Amino acid sequence: MLRFKGKDLQPVLKEAIDNGGAVLFAKDQGVYMFSAECERDADNNPKNLAYAEGCNPNLDKFDDWWTLSRAELGGDDFGEEFDPNDNVFQAVLAYGHDLTITATRTHLTLETEVPRDVNAQTGKARPRSRQQKR
Questions:
Q1: Position 129 confidence tier, pLDDT thresholds 50, 70, 90
Q2: For a designed S-S bond to 35, which of 3, 16, 86, 130 qualifies (C-beta 3.0 to 4.6 A apart)?
Q3: For the segment 76-89, what is each residue's pLDDT rounded down to a tens digit?
Q4: For residue 53, what is the DSSP state?
């Protein structure tokens, strides 16, 4: 299962909705989502990208993200198009939920989950553990 943090995905979804475009899910140099109709940098790359946790080549070691993406999605590069107005994406926008993607040979399943740092029952941020020295 791959996880996209809601806070990272929200700008991508807003851009797609505002510009009337699709959300693109890609596996090539990492695993990421971006708006089909998006603002681009000087090299024509999308400015707003949301990477799956552990699959960002700018942060994660090549062998780590490559192995994870291959295990979850297979060896071939690909792209899929989604409607940003779908209910699963609306939950990400409205509630800040994370998006998980599970793949089989023939299907992608998209679901939302309460972020790991939020208590699912109260909706409040979980307290961070901390260590005090005396």
A1: very low
A2: 16
A3: 999 999 999 999 99
A4: T
Show the tokens assigned to 50.
Answer: 């949301």
Which tokens belong to 107? 């299907």
Token digits of residue 75: 């060896």
Alpha-helical regions (H) of 1-134:
6-19, 62-73, 87-95
Upper half-sphere CA count for residue 94 (Cβ side, 13 Å):
9
Q: Is 118 helix (H, G, I), strand (E, B) or coil?
A: strand
Q: Helix, strand, or coil here: 100?
A: strand
> CA 9 to CA 132: how far, in whole Å?
34
Q: φ, ψ for residue 18 (rounded to 5)?
A: -60, -35
65 Cβ neighbours under 8 A, 6+ residues apart: 30, 31, 54, 55, 56, 57
Q: Encode pLDDT of 44-55 as tens digits.
A: 788 889 999 999
